[in-house]
User: Fold this.
Amino acid sequence: MATFAFELVSPERLLITGKVEQVRLPGAEGEFVVMANHAPQLALLGPGIIEVSGGDVAAQRLFVDGGFCDVGPNGCTVLAEAAIAADGDAPAAMDALIAESEKSIAALEDLARRDEAERRLATLRTVRAQLN
Assistant:
């Protein structure tokens, strides 16, 4: 299978760089897969799991808390707001993020913002369940 350049960057550091065969991403409008020769795209990411496979990068699963994906002729770059490996530390980190979200929802009085925060919390809980 053909490969393409992929980078995953968080505010703290470069997490992944190399040639991959495919990347499954949690788009804000739904999950999508990027493969070699994908059409150019700029996409907003929601919280979820990124799955990287093939090529010279070992298969990996990472949780991202939103961000952007830029697919172009030179490959795919993901700029994540936050990212952690979906391994032994991920469930505890997700639990802390869920607890923080629950506290912030309790303090919200604006119904529109509260609804948005509750949808995000539901997504975080769904993602947390995938880590088991």
